[in-house]
Design brief:
alpha+beta, Glutathione_S-Trfase_N, Glutaredoxin, four-stranded mixed sheet, transferase, single chain, Thioredoxin-like_sf, GST_Omega/HSP26, Glutathione S-transferase Yfyf (Class Pi), Chain A, domain 2, transferase activity
Length: 208
Amino acid sequence: MTARPVLYSFRRCPYAMRARLALLASGVECEIREVRLAAKPASMLRASPKATVPVLIPPDHTVIDESLDIMRWALGQHDPWHWLANIRHDLIARNDGPFKYHLDRYKYASRYQSDPAFHRAGALGILAGIEAALQAGCFLHGKQPGLTDAAIAPFVRQFAATDPDWFASVPLPRLQEWLRAFLMLPLFGRAMCRLAPWQEGDAPVLLH
């Protein structure tokens, strides 16, 4: 039997979420191991000493521990919905850099001892760029979602959920509809399935 890739994941992590989305979109059969962050599995730490999710171990036993690299690997195996076409690398870079910086300091202001209003405004300015990009279609890849949407939406979801009433009031109608549409995709529902934390010796659980 051909070995399956193994994904160490954590449902609430946006980096892990986008890896799960790409694996599901690719149709690559994958074993998923949900991680409890307070007790990370020794096998994951041996594979990736940086100790952050997601971590993918493909059948050749190499280790991929960057979420975008996992997305590219999965879709490089099979890309039935053409997620690799027309990737907006500029939008992903702004999401992973300045937007994530502001998101953390808005959502976790007490942890960072930051001014949440300042960082909310900074993040909102970056989201205005997504609003402008959505003039060309319902999704950032046009009529259908692609890698760019899947790479960014989990982070915008966290931002929106921090204060949903306020987010609903901001004048970014295309962005709000884009997020609603993405979160309603059956693919997203499958990616967000709840799993018990994995322990050594557990029967394999497949991401499907």
